[in-house]
Write a structure and sequence with these properties.
4 copies of one chain form a homotetramer. Chain A is of the alpha/beta class. Helix content of chain A is 42%, strand content 15%. The first copy, chain A, has 10 helices and 8 strands. An 8-stranded parallel beta sheet of chain A has the order 2-1-8-7-6-5-4-3. In chain A, helix 1 links the parallel strand 1 and strand 2. In chain A, helix 1 packs across helix 2, helix 1 runs parallel beside helix 10 and helix 5 runs parallel beside helix 7. Chain A is globular and about 45 Å long. Chains A and B meet through helix 2 and helix 3 of A and helix 2 and helix 3 of B.
């Protein structure tokens, strides 16, 4: 029942803020779920590994891992076993976030691994060229986030609309089945509307919501114009 | 109440085996707790990140993380925030396991971070020299594991007793407060007895128990001669 | 004058064998140059960093770096500054060799950097999907090397001909300007002929020549059937 | 004949500045040699890999590598084979520079490797604790460089004299044979004099000289008060 529904999509990356750790993570995920239910927008959360089980047990919102490692079960102390994320309740995973960049070789392997486990894959990229490269690997989503705008408060969908547009076009030339998200600097309803108008199916965001005085209100604003 | 008690000590590193993931992790931790209660031996478990919360909620056995990253709270997608491990229930952490080797700089930073959070630090090392180096960083424990013996079934305490003895001696020359564990190839009561006789205060082990036909019986055997 | 000429192309990766270090590197490069002159085949060499200056000073064969880092000039102790490789005499560089795998983000940055310096880029890949991804980044060459065959003596062009064929086709669908090489297990004239017949423009190889009793003879054999 | 002589010692790390690459590297090394000859101070240079051969061929100044990898000869494309550095003319190597931090495990292995090749080892560290750890590994030198001062123009020997003093003391408690250098922010004669007065045997520096309007004059100033 926790499937990833139709667009528009909002993925809230909890990163490693104290405001989104442990009890705070649960509370934030609850706000996300409430807003999703009230507005019909498909909101997903990507909390830290230790919080996945608890959130997926106590709530109904789809949960993503922030990263999985390209490993088989066995002797890999400290690594992120994909099967562990799945059993804890993750229905998908971010891959290659700009704060967790991966080797090309591993991105390919991890997208395939996620697919084999029935998990959705969201490959993050930093520009048009790497977005096209990611699309050739057949992930479910490519999320483009120009790194210079991450956490800047300057929304990619408004500051560099042509990047989003070109990325959508180029990705669909290569692989029609890949859905495009955009991120970096997104926080308001106008930002999200611009993202959708440019052809993306949603947004990936973090600090704009997590660090807001009232995250629930910030989420409501985010989805207010779509 | 889940404090690390007096020696002898057994730390079971769950690594990333399917036999020690999710429900299996909980079951294995329960066996560890039962053996600890029945025998009075101090057994600790180091499960995967996603299983820490559940085990620490449902059981009373001390739980360690397998690794923590040297980061401050903030934008570190996919990294292991020490505070997240603590809030999930970890009372300490392995550091620099041979499958998760760290930069010298980070080992120092992470030992200090664990200390500041009231978490125990268990620095793993691969030989006498790196054990001495680790001791200068003031961790609670140094666990020496010659990498060629890990998962070999050949116990370090019997195959290379002089390494354990010399390590204990050299570490205590440098820092009397550091407690020494040994690992690699340990699985039987004789292995553990030899480890204690050589001056170590316990063992760090994994596959010898996790992959045993009957892990609880294997644990009982492990602690039978001390 | 040391430009990269028309196909067929042979790139000899010197790796870090003692047989291809220092004086041995110079001698091996000289053999490569002699064979290139005698046969008209375009042979390039990729020696270790410390040997690039000497080889490019004393010989006329095109020299590639084995890797360059995605850095700007400045404070990067121990890293490989692209400008340093160029000034030493390298006309291009391998990128993302299976023994030096790079983040997707860096492959993109380094291909662009090489281009801006007028250096040729040879991106190594491990399968069909990553070859397609590499092609979207506009390198001069993509060299596919299934890792399980590297150093195996089993030639990719004969063991897995369909991989080479499909890679050529898929890459040219994405980007007609990218030239395809293949590697892994290549050592004989038959291997190289098969590689060309499958649509590639040449081969990337190493131990089959470097460790041969008589590298010059091995090179002559390699190019004997094209 | 290019042996490392008695203290005081100056090691000039060329890093990856264009001002210290290729022809510029040779010219800078020549200035270092002239100053060494004129003043009797033991100056060593650590140029980029590609410049080691040329400098050691054309000059008489001792040359260090900026880094070596913990590898055996063989299939390690793009890595730094210690034997390659030695054959190119390096008489020693920096290890674990703050811009090239290494795993504890590797620092130990590389110090041993350098020793086995008759090369001097200079392990860089970031604070008192890691300096002590480095000393247990028996390198020839430990060079302490508080990272917050590197490139700052604020000399460690004047800004944090107690760090240098304590490091010298602690290192000599652990291992009398290790010689201590200090770095970070060093550029003037007063800085160097302070370093020597605090018990260190010399300095490791970079931008203060490399980027000076007149590097030779800057070097003469550096060694003017000892």
């Amino acid at each position: 029942m926790k499937e990833i529904k139709e667009s528009p999509i909002v993925i809230l990356n909890f990163k490693t803020y104290l405001e989104s750790t442990g009890k705070n993570a649960l509370k934030l995920a609850k706000s996300c779920q409430t807003v999703a239910e009230e507005t019909g927008v498909n909101i997903m959360v990507a909390p830290q590994y230790a919080d996945i089980y608890r959130i997926s047990q106590e709530l109904d919102i789809p949960v993503l891992a922030q990263h999985i490692d390209s490993i088989e079960a066995g002797g890999h102390t400290g690594s992120i076993l994909p099967e562990s994320m799945k059993e804890a309740g993750a229905v998908g995973t971010l891959i290659n976030h700009s704060e967790q960049r991966q080797q090309l070789f591993n991105i390919d392997a991890v997208v395939k691994k996620a697919f084999s486990l029935g998990m959705s894959s969201v490959v993050c990229t930093n520009n048009i060229e790497t977005s096209a490269a990611a699309a050739t690997l057949n992930p479910d989503f490519v999320a483009i986030e120009p790194p210079e705008l991450i956490g800047s408060g300057i929304p990619v969908s408004q500051a560099e609309p042509e990047i989003v547009e070109k990325t959508v076009e180029l990705i669909h030339d290569i692989n029609k089945d890949v859905r495009v998200l955009c991120g970096a600097g997104i926080s308001t309803g106008d930002d999200m509307k611009a993202a959708i108008d440019l052809g993306s199916e949603g947004v990936l965001l973090a600090s704009g919501i997590i660090l807001a005085d009232d995250p629930k209100r910030a989420l409501l604003d985010l989805v207010s114009k779509i």
